[in-house]
Each structure stands twice: as structure tokens, then as C-alpha cells.
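assembly run, all chains below
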Amino acid sequence: MAVTALEVEELRRKLGGVDAVAGVSFSVAEGVTAGLIGPNGAGKSTLVGLIGGTQLPDAGTVRLFGDDISRLPAWQRSRLGLARTFQISGEFARLTVLENLMVACRDKTGETLWGALFRRSRWSAIERAHADRAWELLERFRLEHKANEYAGLLSGGEKRLVEIMRGLISRPRLLLLDEPLAGVNPTLREEITEYLWSLRRDGLTMIIVEHELEAVERLCDTVLVMANGRLVGQGKYSEVIEMGEVVDAYIKG
Amino acid sequence: MSVATGWEFVAITMLVYLGVNLIACLGLNLQYGTAGVLNFAFIVFQAAGAYVAALFAVGPSSSSGGFQTYVGGWDFPFPLPWLVATITGAVIAVPIGLVGLRRLRSDYQAMVMLVVSLIATTVVVSFPGFLNGSAGIALVPPPLGTLLNPISVQYGWLYVGLTAVCCMVVFVLVSALARSPLGRNWRAMRENEAVAIAVGLDVNRLRMLVFVVGGAIAALSGAVLVDFISAWSPDAWLYPETFAFFTALIVGGLGNSMGALIGAVLVPTLLLEGVTLLPTFANPTVSLGLQWVVIGVVIIAFLWFRPQGIVPERKTVIAPPDNTAAALATGHKAQEAG
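ok done. output:
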């Protein structure tokens, strides 16, 4: 039987008196790519925040591969293998693209005061390995010519790629993508979809919040539909696309 | 031995002040330029270092006939007072950091720090028995004063040498930190805190660490200064002094040690101290006040026309892998396995 990567149980969160997330439960098995769709204000972003740890739930639990992470700060969730991208590109503007990726690599020697100052030979070897891995990702995403550019100078689409690569470099067990195609030109959108598809083929567990239904159809094994803070449907794309909420939000316009 | 006079006196004084300002700027640059922590209480750490270095050298208050009163008072040999001062800077950073840096957004952190600075001055002035109030502590014996006559030129240059050693140690340490993975984490926190947290950085720890290291460096700068001028009072560390250092960093260029060096030469040394050595051209109060007008104009001019400063932060360029095979071995296979 497949291992459960993410299990969300009765998750609740009030925002300004409104039930932004009002008792949501679902689970995602390892290796599965799940889409999360729903109209604006459905509570998708809040749910992503609760899973990622930027917000804490009022009630309910979030389990990552069996570990209860409901109350952990976001940085600890990241160290347990949960990587994420942001709806509005979150790059480190005055760090180079390479550095943007390497920040996501953990190295216990060079990150301590003592180690940074007095164990240079040790951490520089680790740094080289991290840099090599970053280069290799950049080659895969065909962005190696921008490796030593400041990330703030990249185009919107390239920033998206950097975010995805930064998520991948830490070898996550679950990748949470918040609208990876928003604000990206059609060519690059196609390219990013292609990359995500290859990640899915490699067996990475992903949750993708996305408004581009075409991409959701192509990428997702299962689709979760949210409306008014609740999960109103779950199933294959072909099944949920018939639902009233989805038709209202996406097809009727 | 000749007594320091004329140009040598000026040179020695300017060089020691430059050293003190450089140490301070390097500390503040690590906090603000590298990590983005707005420490508007920076001068408090310099003051703490100065007071502690003074207390550990001046001896009990009874020894000077009791004309000044303070808590403690020992006559430890050099360099112990400087060491204790540096450690004190690090230690007091912990409670101040715990109150001011956790659970607050960075703009509020800056406000808390400004308030800390005001409270510290008020406390010292209001409790004269603590650190001799507004009169301050005087008659701090010069370090190694038994070796050379403290008013000689030779002693002056010896002091310049001691200051230079401190500068070099701090310069090397701070530059090494900035280039390490820890330094990169600090810069990432400065650029985007939410994302820094999302990629696994414990920003509370990072902020506290830079606060402690910068606090120690600031305290050392205070210790070096107090032993040179042999006295320390609240007038020397009013909150605007912190802004002189911020101006220095903005002028010199944030986030790199060369920028801190150039800023330290130009702003607190040439502009602030240099002006006091010029012949008085007006009412002394007016010329002292003018310093701050000039500081204000300089900071606005730079923020408008050259916000990156004279020496901008250098980009960290990392070379591609030596050969692709090695890269594939470390990267690709590991990724496939993961």
C-alpha cells in the first residue's frame, strides 16, 4: 500500500471572523501529484499557508509522512522535507541565482559561528558539492547562463524557475507549488509545465495550486476542489470538472 | 621622550578615532549591511564596552578620593578590561535581542532599539551611584601606561598600533563571516524573511547571532576609545551617534568591509571628529550643531543619488564545476536516488 505523504485532518483557521479554512480533510499518497483548485477566496492560499507553516491552524492536524507538523514553524517543516514556492515570486533579489539555490542547502558546519570562522576547509568542500548540484539543476532548467546574475534582475518567469529549483535542491519529500504559472508568458508556461511533468514522472510528491486548468489536467493525478473554506470535491480531473463550483469559477467565467 | 604635540598629536588622535570608528562600522555593517537588522541601539553597546573597560581598569571609587562613584571598580591588567568589555557586549545583546527582535516586524524592532538607547542614557544619568551619572567616569588609567610615558609620542603610536591590531582582527573575522554560508543565510534573511524561513532558516537564531557578534564588536570599539580619552560620559553616546555610523555605512556602501572602511574614514572621522580639530569659525555650539546638519544632508544626498554607496556590495561569483562528470556524480545520481 502506498505511503501517505501528507495527511490533513479537520483543519480550521479563522481570518478576521471568516472561516477561511473550515474543517478540511484529505490525504495525498507518496508519488502523487495533487491539484488544488477553486474560485478566488475559496481558502486555497490559507490552506497552503497552514500546510507550509506560515500560518498556524486554530484546530486540526497536518501530518507529513506520519509526523505531526501542525504546530511546527515553517523552517522546521522545510527541514523535514517540505519545500514550497510562493504565489508572488519570492526570490532573494541581491543574491545571485546560484546563491538563491544554495541557501536552501543545509550545512551544519558553515552555518554556525564557530564553523564559519574556523572550519573553512570543511565547509568549502560541502559548498563545492552544493554549487555543483545547483549548476546541474540550472543546466536541467536551461538557466545556467544566469547562474551568477542577481535573482532580482531575472524576468518573472525565470524567477518562477528559480523558486522551483530552490525547492528541488533540498531534495524535498513534498513540493508545494502556489500558482507556479501565474504571470508567466505562454512559452515559458509550457516549459514549466514540462519540467513539472518530468518531476511527476520522477516520482516527486507535489501539491499544485493553479488556475490554468489545462496544466492541472496534464499534471495532476487527483484534483481537490475548494469553495468557501471547504473541500467540495476530490477526484480525477475529468470527474471534478463537471462540478458546479468548478463550472461557476472557471468555465462560466 | 618627547611629548606629543602639533601634527603628531593630531595624527595619533585621528588614527585612533578612525580605528574605533572602523571597528564600530564593521560591527554595524554585519548587523545592518549583511543581515538587515536595524540596530538603532548600536551606540549603547559601544557605551557598555567603554564603561566596562573603564570599570575594570579604574580601580575602586575610593582610590580616587571618592570624587566619582560607581558600582564595582577594579584594576585589572591590560588587555583583560578590553576582553571583559567585548564579552559584556555579547552578553547584554542576549536580553535586549530577546525583547526587541523576537515576534516583532523589522520596523518595530528598529523602534524598540531606539527606545532602548534612550532608556539606557536616562538610567545612567538618573542613577549617579551607578556609573557616576552625567559627569561620567574619568581618570581611566592608560593601558600599558607603566611601560611608556602615556603623554609621549611613542605611547601615542603604541596606542595606534594596538588599535590597528584590533581593527585587523575584526576586519578579518567580519569579512570571513560575510563570505561563509552563515553570511549567505544572513543576506537571505535581509532580502526576504518569509522565503528565508520557508527554505529552512531559523531567522530568530540568525538575528540573535548577528546581534551578539555585532554587540561584542561595538563594545570592543568602546573599550579602545575609552582607554584613549581616559573618560566616558553619557554625552559621548547619545542616540544620534548611532546615526553617524549608519550614515558612514550608507556613504561607504552596505554589506562589504571596504565600504565600511571608506565610510568610517569619511563620516565619523573626517566629518565629525575632523571638524572639531579645525579652528573655530563660529560660535562653538553652532559648529557642533552643524556636524549633524551635514550628516543629515549627506545621508539624504546618498540615498537619492547613490543608494548603493561608494563601494557597492560585491557579487559572489561561483565558478561552474571543474568537469561535468564530477558534477553528475555528486548531483544527478544523488537526485535520482532521492
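Residues 6-34 of chain B form the longest helix (29 residues).

Residues 324-338 of chain B have pLDDT under 50 and may be disordered.

not gonna interpret more than that til we talk
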